[in-house]
């Protein structure tokens, strides 16, 4: 497989992933971003924890999530638990963010 073939394959995989994301976005109420992944979910719990030396970390749990990862054969995940010292971003999606405009 040439470098060009590999690049074409990865480009096609990213396009398929974007199309799937667009199709499932309306099913979810939250976007969760960590340093390694991007999730869509309807149930998210973010807990700030600290260790004895004073460092802070985040524990994020989600149920019935969709994960942006083009190398996963199945992107729907029943339960997710992320523990990280890095930033975590949780945004609630407004239904108007992804509704199609009505034809008038």
UniProtKB/TrEMBL annotation:
Pfam families: DUF2469
InterPro entries the record matches: DUF2469 (IPR019592)
Name of the protein: DUF2469 family protein
């Amino acid at each position: 497989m040439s470098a060009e073939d590999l690049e074409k394959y990865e480009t096609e995989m990213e396009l398929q992933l974007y199309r799937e994301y667009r199709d499932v976005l309306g099913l979810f109420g939250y976007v969760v971003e960590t340093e390694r992944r991007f999730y869509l979910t309807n149930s998210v719990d973010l807990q700030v924890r600290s260790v004895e030396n004073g460092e802070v970390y985040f524990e994020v749990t989600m149920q019935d999530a969709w994960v942006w990862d083009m190398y996963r054969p199945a992107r729907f995940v029943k339960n997710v638990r992320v523990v990280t010292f890095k930033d975590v971003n949780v945004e609630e999606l407004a239904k108007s963010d992804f509704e199609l405009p009505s034809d008038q």
